[in-house]
Amino acid sequence: QVQLQESGPGLVSPSQTLSVTCTVSGVSIATKPYYWSWIRQTPGKNLEWMGAIAYSGTTYYDPSLKSRASISADTSKNQFTLQLISVTPEDTAVYYCAEGAGQYDCWGQGTQVTVSS
User: Fold this and answer.
1) Which one of 33, 70, 71, 100 counts the least CB within 10 Å of its CB?
2) What is the pLDDT of residue 45?
3) Taking a C-beta distance cutoff of 8 angstroms, is the pair 106, 97 a contact?
4) Cα–Cα dist 96/61, whole Å
Protein backbone atom coordinates (compact mmCIF):
# COMPACT_ATOMS: atom_id res chain seq x y z
CA GLN A 1 0.00 0.00 0.00
CA VAL A 2 1.44 3.35 -1.07
CA GLN A 3 1.48 6.08 1.56
CA LEU A 4 2.70 9.67 1.30
CA GLN A 5 3.57 12.12 4.04
CA GLU A 6 4.41 15.77 3.52
CA SER A 7 6.68 17.83 5.74
CA GLY A 8 7.31 21.52 5.55
CA PRO A 9 8.39 24.65 7.39
CA GLY A 10 4.95 25.97 8.34
CA LEU A 11 5.98 29.61 7.96
CA VAL A 12 8.15 31.22 5.29
CA SER A 13 9.10 34.86 4.91
CA PRO A 14 8.29 36.71 1.66
CA SER A 15 11.02 36.54 -1.00
CA GLN A 16 12.49 33.42 0.60
CA THR A 17 12.45 29.82 -0.67
CA LEU A 18 9.73 27.40 0.30
CA SER A 19 10.74 23.75 0.55
CA VAL A 20 8.35 20.87 1.19
CA THR A 21 9.25 17.19 1.18
CA CYS A 22 7.16 14.10 0.55
CA THR A 23 8.21 10.81 2.09
CA VAL A 24 6.84 7.80 0.25
CA SER A 25 6.36 4.32 1.68
CA GLY A 26 5.11 1.13 0.10
CA VAL A 27 6.92 1.56 -3.21
CA SER A 28 10.21 2.93 -4.45
CA ILE A 29 9.75 6.31 -6.13
CA ALA A 30 12.08 5.05 -8.88
CA THR A 31 9.71 2.23 -9.82
CA LYS A 32 8.36 2.36 -13.35
CA PRO A 33 5.85 3.79 -14.24
CA TYR A 34 5.17 5.91 -11.15
CA TYR A 35 4.81 9.69 -11.28
CA TRP A 36 4.82 11.92 -8.21
CA SER A 37 3.07 15.27 -8.11
CA TRP A 38 2.87 18.40 -6.03
CA ILE A 39 -0.54 20.06 -5.77
CA ARG A 40 -1.61 22.99 -3.65
CA GLN A 41 -4.84 24.52 -2.49
CA THR A 42 -4.81 28.23 -1.80
CA PRO A 43 -7.50 29.86 0.34
CA GLY A 44 -10.76 30.09 -1.58
CA LYS A 45 -9.37 28.48 -4.73
CA ASN A 46 -9.37 25.14 -6.42
CA LEU A 47 -6.58 22.65 -6.35
CA GLU A 48 -3.59 23.71 -8.45
CA TRP A 49 -1.21 21.18 -9.94
CA MET A 50 2.32 22.55 -9.63
CA GLY A 51 4.50 19.89 -11.14
CA ALA A 52 5.62 16.28 -11.09
CA ILE A 53 8.66 14.07 -11.17
CA ALA A 54 8.68 10.76 -12.96
CA TYR A 55 10.24 7.49 -11.81
CA SER A 56 13.06 8.31 -14.26
CA GLY A 57 13.72 11.70 -12.67
CA THR A 58 12.18 13.70 -15.51
CA THR A 59 10.34 16.74 -14.21
CA TYR A 60 7.28 18.63 -15.42
CA TYR A 61 5.99 22.00 -14.28
CA ASP A 62 2.95 24.22 -14.62
CA PRO A 63 4.10 27.12 -16.84
CA SER A 64 2.26 29.60 -14.64
CA LEU A 65 4.92 29.16 -11.97
CA LYS A 66 7.36 30.92 -14.32
CA SER A 67 10.38 28.81 -13.42
CA ARG A 68 10.03 29.43 -9.69
CA ALA A 69 9.42 25.75 -8.95
CA SER A 70 11.91 22.92 -8.83
CA ILE A 71 11.23 19.27 -7.97
CA SER A 72 13.96 16.83 -7.01
CA ALA A 73 14.13 13.27 -5.70
CA ASP A 74 16.29 11.48 -3.18
CA THR A 75 15.91 7.79 -3.92
CA SER A 76 18.05 6.79 -0.93
CA LYS A 77 15.42 8.32 1.35
CA ASN A 78 12.49 7.59 -0.96
CA GLN A 79 11.57 11.27 -0.90
CA PHE A 80 10.83 14.00 -3.39
CA THR A 81 11.00 17.70 -2.68
CA LEU A 82 9.41 20.85 -4.06
CA GLN A 83 11.29 24.12 -3.86
CA LEU A 84 9.55 27.37 -4.71
CA ILE A 85 11.68 30.49 -4.86
CA SER A 86 10.74 34.14 -4.37
CA VAL A 87 7.55 33.34 -2.51
CA THR A 88 4.82 35.89 -1.84
CA PRO A 89 1.75 35.75 0.41
CA GLU A 90 -0.13 34.40 -2.64
CA ASP A 91 1.87 31.19 -2.22
CA THR A 92 0.17 30.56 1.12
CA ALA A 93 -1.57 27.19 0.70
CA VAL A 94 -1.93 23.63 1.80
CA TYR A 95 0.66 21.68 -0.15
CA TYR A 96 -0.13 18.08 -1.09
CA CYS A 97 1.96 15.39 -2.65
CA ALA A 98 0.22 12.71 -4.66
CA GLU A 99 0.97 9.60 -6.63
CA GLY A 100 0.19 10.12 -10.29
CA ALA A 101 0.00 12.96 -12.78
CA GLY A 102 -3.46 14.00 -13.94
CA GLN A 103 -5.13 11.17 -12.07
CA TYR A 104 -4.09 10.55 -8.51
CA ASP A 105 -4.32 7.23 -6.78
CA CYS A 106 -2.98 8.31 -3.42
CA TRP A 107 -2.55 11.61 -1.57
CA GLY A 108 -0.69 12.79 1.46
CA GLN A 109 -2.62 14.60 4.18
CA GLY A 110 -1.19 17.98 3.19
CA THR A 111 0.96 20.50 4.98
CA GLN A 112 0.02 24.14 5.57
CA VAL A 113 2.62 26.69 4.50
CA THR A 114 2.03 30.33 5.27
CA VAL A 115 4.05 33.10 3.65
CA SER A 116 4.18 36.05 5.97
CA SER A 117 6.61 38.44 7.57
Assistant:
1) 33
2) 81
3) no
4) 15
Q: Find residue 41's DSSP bridge partners.
A: 47, 94
Q: What percentage of the chain has pLDDT greater than the value 70?
A: 100
Predicted pLDDT at 72: 98
Nearest by Cα to 23 from 78, 99, 95, 84? 78
41-52 pLDDT, tens digit each: 998 888 999 999
The answer to whether the beta carbons of residues 113 and 92 sit under 8 Å apart is yes
Enumerate the β-bridge partners of residue 93: 113
Angle among Cα 92, 3, 93 to the nearest 5 degrees reads: 5
**Contacts (Cβ under 8 Å, ≥6 apart) of 21:** 6, 7, 8, 79, 80, 81, 82
Residues in the chain: 117
State the pLDDT confidence band at 71, using cuts at 50, 70 and 90: very high
